């Protein structure tokens, strides 16, 4: 079912120029400060908005990963580990500045490779990535004040595997704290979004970061497995699906490796009848359609108090009707491309199951480009807690709406999930917000806002959304051996 | 010397605030360090472990929702009540571990003092482990520690009381509820501790003590979907990796077993509390 909401006026195209970006015909691995060939069959990375092949990227085999780990070990022992902490911090400050200097280039490249709107890559991903390096740079020579004992020690070599939804930002979340705490890293970017990580390698060179401190090994799942299972890796950090998280936790069982996992979510966004409806609707839209819903902490379950259900849904549909879906490089685009054909197929499958199980699908009238991977913003009403669209992480622009009558019911429904990454509360009553925030079993609770991130603010899940935190003082603990 | 015939105790489980026998009807013979018969102790079964998890889950909301001050007073009360049973604990620890009187006394003293130490932590954790986060925007943003939920504890096999208290008290101080598998060969001080807990204002179900075999019960607790974390300290070395793998299926928080049983008299720091604490971060706009 579609509505025929029309935008009140048409927008002229406002494309960001891609001329700032130069994409080489092929890329190698970044190991020990050099770009080297990978031994595996190269991967093609495509622009999901056009299906254009952007370039070919090397695949690292276990032998390549081994070279990278040895380079990281050597750097840990010879340069990065013994370095004065203040100097480590200075390198990170340099990297933060370089990211700011080349921000537009990173933003355009990210939108090309990932499909996210330039408005988001420009205003969220890249500035936050730079902020993460800036924040952690300052920690490098103050770790004894981090509350982890008088003499916290780095773990050694960190193996890090990151997802495709925020390629550069997740790199920053992983690399910045690892380096600030004196570790060296081997990072495996996602197979569909390797390009900003490779551009980051160039930033490391411009910063004169010593060889081996950051190594980037591209590839798919097998490459990631080689990183996680390498014997000389002391720390594994993973962001991605709960399913892969389980297999990683199994793989490190019985070893001395430290592990942090940032996994899936199915966040409840709870709207009470005393909420400011217009603000809440903005927050609902921001919660589920930000980054095409490819967000582990997306507000994918809207829990709306029964008495305001119809009003909220009408207002929400009106608002969604004004969202612009299309060219990620257009500065007016709100919703970009789905990152891959595979992810699009999963979103379609779960949406079809939603309908088959009895929920009502609503999508606005919107024209989708002919080529590329697209899915319109979608709202399911009449969703029951047993429906798969209420339980499974869709990781797409699909909102499931459920209702509640009392605050207790809202909490019970919100917590009725194996996940526990994030949640939202919309209410004008302070004491209610604090009470509900206390009862929600989730690592991040946004009250009268949603999807806000900051390097000073710890992020991470309860339950099967993972363990460990990223950001803030808490995030340092993931990379340090505490002495207390 | 009295010629009165002693009244012996039936050693049972402690689950949900009550003292049931194992539903399996099984017991096993426990002897002192010299091999003399001490008693037939309940051998907990898989079903007992599951019942204990249900009890622990049921008790979680109240225990985690109690004020930190209240939890601290309850844990201090455990120390007070243990003090009153000092002689009994010394005899039982001495028998279980084959310690001299003075060494057993030192272990019991340390165990009681450990409760006092953790009792004092309950209302300081949020200040030490929480934070106000200066985000770059008009938001009030703070982070607080919260308990993970139900924690399964495979207690140390050697240190029957001090080791047990050292792994249990931090789980409780942080607001978690516990299902504990005691030392298999030295369970009797744990049974007595259960009696102390039952009379110390610790709500029923907050601590559940299963006497029996960690090797048998470990896998069920490691894979149980309603257990949030597991401390493998007392797991048999040959099985610990398998238990950790089972725990991965539900992304449990895991404390790996040490290579050898640690020196329980050492200052534990925060190392046994942080593994079973989550961090919750709350954002709210300012002036919008």
Description:
The complex is a heterodimer of chains A (484) and B (288). By secondary structure, chain A is α/β, with parallel strands linked by helices. Chain A has 2 domains: 258 residues, 3-Layer(aba) Sandwich (Aldehyde Dehydrogenase, Chain A, domain 1), CATH 3.40.605.10; 180 residues, Aldehyde Dehydrogenase, Chain A, domain 2, CATH 3.40.309. Chain A contains 15 helices and 20 strands. A 7-stranded mixed β-sheet of chain A has the order 14-15-16-13-12-17-18, with helices on both faces. In chain A, a hairpin with a 2-residue loop joins β2 and β3. The radius of gyration of chain A is 22 Å and the shape is globular. With 288 residues, chain B is an alpha/beta fold. Chain B has one domain: Aldehyde Dehydrogenase, Chain A, domain 1. Helices cover 40% and strands 18% of the residues of chain B. Chain B contains 9 helices and 10 strands. Chain B has a 5-stranded parallel β-sheet with strand order 7-6-5-8-9, sandwiched between helices. In chain B, α7 links the parallel β6 and β7. In chain B, α3 packs across α4 and α8 runs parallel beside α9. At the A-B interface, α8, β18, β19 and α15 of A face β4, α9 and β10 of B. β18 of chain A pairs parallel with β10 of chain B.
Oligomerization status of the protein chains: heterodimer
The SSE string of chain B, one letter per element, is EEHHHHHEEEHEHEHEHEE
Describe the strand arrangement of the main beta sheet of chain A, using strand numbers: 14-15-16-13-12-17-18
Structural class of chain B: alpha/beta
The total of helices of chain B stands at 9
Number of domains of chain A: 2
Form type of chain B: globular
CATH classification class of the largest domain in chain A: Alpha Beta
Count every beta strand of chain B, where a strand is a DSSP E run of 2 or more residues.
Answer: 10
In what range is the share of β-strand residues of chain B?
15-25%
Q: Average the pLDDT over all residues of chain A and give the rounded result.
A: 96
Return Rg of chain A in Å.
22 Å
Share of helical residues of chain A = 25-40%
Number of H- or I-type helical stretches of chain A: 15
CATH topology of chain B: Aldehyde Dehydrogenase, Chain A, domain 1
CATH level-4 homologous superfamily of the largest domain in chain A: Aldehyde Dehydrogenase, Chain A, domain 1
Total strand segments of chain A: 20
| CATH class call of chain B | Alpha Beta
Q: Which stretches of chain B are poorly predicted, pLDDT < 50 over at least 5 residues? A: none
